[in-house]
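Chain A, query sequence.
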Amino acid sequence: MTANIGTALLFIALLAALYSAVASVLGARLRVPELVVSARNAVLAVAALVVLAALTLMYAFVTHDFSLKYVVAQSTRSQPWPYIFSGFYGGQAGSLLYWSLTLALLSTAVIVIHFRTDRQLIPYVITVLMAIEAFILTVLNFISSPFETVSPVPPDGRGLNPLLQDPGMLVHPPMLLAGYVSVSIPFAFALAALITGQVDNRWLKATRHWALLAWLFLSLGNLLGAWWAYHVLGWGGYWGWDPVENAAIMPWFAMSAYVHSVLVQERRGMLKVWNMVLIIVAFNLAIFGTFVVRSGILSSVHSFAVSEIGPYFFGFLAVSLIVSLTLLLLRLPQLKDEHNFDSMLSREASFLFNNLLFVSVILVTFLGVIFPLLSEALQGRKINVGAPFYQQVNGPLLLAIVALMGLGMLVPWRRGALRALLRGLRTTLAATAIITVAAIVLGARSPWTILSVAACAFALVVAVREFHRTALALRRAQQTHYPTALLAVFRYNRRRYGGYLVHVGVAIMGIAIVGSSFFQTERSVSMRPGQSVEVGQYTVAYQGLTTWSEPGKHRTIAALLVRNGNRSFEVAPQKVVYENWEEQPISEVVIKTVYPQLDDVYIVMAAFGEDGTASFHIFVNPLVAFLWLGGALLVIGGLISWWPEAVPATVDVRAGRLAPGTVSS
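Chain A, predicted structure.
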């Protein structure tokens, strides 16, 4: 019964999506507004049907309906209820249903917000969004259905992969998939602008908050993925340049470039073609990311098994690129820039160079991801590209992005004076030098380490200086306390200072990456109870093993005592065997952040013997706590930028006064 209901709902939703896509474009072309209204109503119907289908699948999980093959694969009766919920999107078919659900809900929000205000664009926006929805629903109906039945009905399921039975599963996949889906909204408006010829700034204005929302979801998805990998996979790191990780980060790079370059088009009427290209690239990279994970075509700890949907996603990707690039070529004459660059020492030039670096990182990463496929096609064997390649090639590019991020905050629009820039840089460079010298004193020796610290310090000092100058102006103008004035900075220009807070977060994350990459200490040891080992400044003493059983799993727990000077603490890394996954024992990592050093003591129990002997991988990772702090500031800054302006005003920083009017970024 559940299978029949879910299948029927998805099939009717597919018909409604196809009708909406066709009726909307016909209504616009034939100038029949009733058809456009009908298409709008069909969007609402699609959303309702997909919501009901999702609730039907969730009901099957909650009631342990093992007549569904998907429920059997993703849950058991003993599985904790949060992971019953995450089983919904834990497999291929469910994640595609989540994709469809998110797109349907976002499409509904677009209809509610823009139907009356963007009448020329909205019919084609509906067509694009419902064409994407129809593709996903086609896959769900005919290729990978979550409502496929199994016979005979088993008494219990196998359950989620043990690696997925973790709190990270509750947050990382939904955020990352929402990020992929959200890029569809600005993409749909861009294509609508190309189709109608309305390629002025109206489509940018309509999509600014949608683009920032997509960037926020992608940021959260990637950050949560790094956190999850760090505390689950047990290799001592948080980013391994895995193919699926790369597929997830590339749309983020593209959207980061886009949210910067649209400022140039809004302010100077420039980079119109570039912005169209960036949003087209971002969307197609999001589809590519979905394709890589769900096709299983590339080997990754994050991807699903090889499946039949790969060719369909590849075909959709090809059609999307052909259609969007053809429309772009047809509209090139209308996308001429209104101004030229007045000077290379200007904010718009810094944004352009920033974008070129972002695109270079995307190209390098994309080539690394597809290289195994190219090598297999040309040589008959897959040659995987490892992390050292990305670190050596992307490392300098990312370093340049961080340094340029700081410089871009200093130069004005249109034309800057080199002498004035150098004069204003004196205190900034002095503060940067102090931080860099401190890093050298603390152990930084290699040129790349020193350059990395200097670049991050420069960007951080510039952003902090901008906050300080504006806060001082507000304090003088409002006769208030400095902390109050500092918080008021965001009220008076959320977009600009939210962006600056993002820059602060990126700079802090950069310092964390430098510290944890260049100063990590690691050691692999095998110990008997009573033995100890030195790892950096820490002594790790092994005390013995205990075992513990609970419903569905068995634990073997190691007792360790870690000493650092006069301080000590106990940790207990574990090896866990799930009843349905005996062939895949899981290591539960222990991570203890030590203050004030800000070292992460990271311990994994690799194996153990019947005589009590155990093997451990022990890492000391400096400054990783800064990674999560910087990531939090990045997300908070993005939220502030996304939030609508409340009090439009300008701040004259030099004169220390306020003036009414709209603040420009």
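Residues 347-379 form the longest helix (33 residues). Residues 1-160 form one domain.
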